[in-house]
Amino acid sequence: MRLSDKITFMFTGIIQAVGQIEQIESVGDDVRLDIAAGSLDLGDMQIGDSIAASGACLTVTAFDERSFRVHVSKETLSCTVGLDTKKPVNLEKALRLADRLGGHLVSGHVDGVGRVVRFEPAGDCVLLSIRAPHALSRYIAAKGSIAVDGVSLTVNTVEHDTFSINLIPHTLENTTLKSLASGHHVNLEVDQIARYVERMTLWESENQGQSENQGEFKNKEQNNND
Predict the structure, then answer these.
(1) 11 contacts 92 by C-beta, under 8 angstroms
(2) Which of 107, 137, 145, 210 is least surrounded by CB atoms within 10 angstroms?
(3) What is the pLDDT of residue 5?
(4) Rounded to a whole number, what is the distance in angstroms from the first to the last CA of the chain?
């Protein structure tokens, strides 16, 4: 068996099927969900596999030929939307190392919940505008990537905390986004590259003096060796 057949990591934001939350059972502050997989192939599924449901990475605890079960923690419920209601969900199995990356790298860790402020036809497409939490807006850039309910999308414009996206017919037909309307809430995950850029910039600022001192020490050490 190849290593790439066993190791899984991340998601792509390319939705593989639309499932349906059929059963919700409270387990203390958590919930247990039974999700009908729709057209998703469960032939290679195993207990412990990761699967994204509308953008949230969940762990499979049981499954049969047409559905699977996941346990959703209180923490996940507190920072997501749509996992405590019997409704359709976007599904994607975790990316394998040998798989093609068709969208962008998505962790399945939802960063926040946005609010739809515009959902209007634009020819064959739909113009979708979402107001993001203020703390997330700095990570959203025009022509950058963002995951909305697990769907990898390209940002068209950004104005303050609101960004717009053009949904093409294929995306509308194959995801739950076709059911959105103004006032609905969606799970958001920003592009990880933006977070790393911010962290590197912050690190440079915090360690600028230390880096300069290390440079001076190395120069002195080199001169002594010479």
Answers:
(1) yes
(2) 210
(3) 41
(4) 55
* Residue at token pair 């999308």: 153
| Token pair listed for 108 | 């399945």
Tell me the average pLDDT across 31-37: 98
Burial of 77 (0-12, 13-18, 19+ CB in 10 A): middle
Name, in order, each residue with C-beta under 8 angstroms of 77's C-beta and a sequence gap of 6 or more.
Answer: 29, 30, 31, 83, 84
Structural domain boundaries in the chain: 3-93, 112-190, 196-226
Domain 112-190, what fold? Elongation Factor Tu (Ef-tu); domain 3 (2.40.30)
Q: For residue 31, list its beta bridge partners.
A: 26, 72
Neighbours of 190 (CB within 10 A): 21
pTM comes to 0.84
